[in-house]
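Justification of computing resources. Each target in the renewal requires a structure prediction run like the one illustrated here; the chain below, 43 residues long, is used simply to show the kind of job we budget for.
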Amino acid sequence: MPDIDKLIEKMKRQPNGIRFQELKRVLEYYGYKQYILRMFLKE
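Resulting structure tokens:
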């Protein structure tokens, strides 16, 4: 959890400096795994 908190703080400070892996990690932590899959598997 401390890593997630650090990533969220980084997102607040540097919204343009976020890597996709960081965003994915935070979203998965909060239960958005299905959303991520749908976002990239759209036809």
